[in-house]
Amino acid sequence: MGAFAYSADDLQRLFHAGIPVWYIRDVTYLPTIRVDKLVHPVTENANQLLPMRHSDQNVTLADANPPHRMVWTSGWTQGERYAAMAHYIRSLHQYPAM
């Protein structure tokens, strides 16, 4: 869970929203980059809890049981993905007949 940012403005907005963000920079900026902390990626089978920012709750990385349904499998540049997501969300909410 998180986002990749290519601009400093997007980076600030995501950071202040508490969303994990990775700032993608061109290799020419390498000499000016300050690394505050080196972290290792979470392994697939770690099932760790990550603390949420400004909250006492945690985000669990454990696999869902039963597994979540696949909503979209094609490329991220195709607009049809939004229709697939909307269809999935509508399937979660069933309103009573009036």
TrEMBL record:
Taxonomic superkingdom: Eukaryota
Protein name: Uncharacterized protein
Organism expressing this protein natively: Dendrothele bispora (strain CBS 962.96)
